[in-house]
Amino acid sequence: MARRNNNIASVALANKNARTVWALLAKEREYCAPIISA
């Protein structure tokens, strides 16, 4: 069961990345990484 949970997380992350790339290509914008302050 633990392996299945890892796969779910991997698929969710891939989905997020794919949606981000699609949005950037559709709107012809450059990716700007968020600034994280420590």
Care to describe what's here?
Keywords: Plasmid. By secondary structure, this protein is mainly alpha-helical. The protein has one domain (1-29). It is built from one helix and no strands. It has one helix at 2-27. The mean pLDDT is 83.
Write the layout of secondary structure elements.
Blueprint: H1 2-27
State mean pLDDT (0 to 100 scale): 83
* Backbone CA Rg: 14 Å
How many helices does DSSP assign? 1
Query: Using DSSP, what is the number of strands?
Result: 0
Strand proportion, as a percent range, falls in under 5%
- Write down the overall geometry: flat
Q: Label the structural class.
A: mainly alpha
Query: Could you say how many structural domains there are in total?
Result: 1
Quick rundown:
With 38 residues, the protein is mostly helical.
Keywords:
Mobile element protein, plasmid, mainly alpha, 38 residues, 0% strand
